[in-house]
Hints:
The protein has helices spanning 7-25, 40-43, 71-84, 118-124, 154-165, 171-174, and strands at residues 48-54, 57-63, 100-107, 111-112, 131-136, 139-143, 178-182, 184-188.
Amino acid sequence: xxxxxxxxxxxxxxxxxxxxxxxxxxxxxxxxxxxxxxxxxxxxxxxxxxxxxxxxxxxxxxxxxxxxxxxxxxxxxxxxxxxxxxxxxxxxxxxxxxxxxxxxxxxxxxxxxxxxxxxxxxxxxxxxxxxxxxxxxxxxxxxxxxxxxxxxxxxxxxxxxxxxxxxxxxxxxxxxxxxxxxxxxxxxx
Length: 189
């Protein structure tokens, strides 16, 4: 993410997401986007996470850390995946679609965070600002910056992120793991 999205570009992405959600949950096939009709930034590769909530409660969240497809297509694919393929939830039903709120997080590229020991890691992370990716071998996990709102204490944040990765909660204290940070531009309906 080299530039901020305009309010019109955010509105277009939310419209693309809403249409994809409605069609995808009904089992319909999406028409390919005509990228040439969209603003340039939506045609460029971009990485997003799409979060669905129902009555303020998480209902699905799926995304990508690396940009591999045009931004508009990334949003379209992830809204359907969040609705139908988030293993933590039953698929969103047609009766829920109208009540679902869509939030899009447009990510910067993750950058390595260099640290010498666990205490330095705790100091270098910026709660509320940094999305965090941890990696240990082939396993990895991420929390968006918004997760800091629910888990504001850095050590607990890292413990829960290790658990999400499938490791012991305090793995980050016991060995040097790879840590990357990124930021997001977040917007919702």
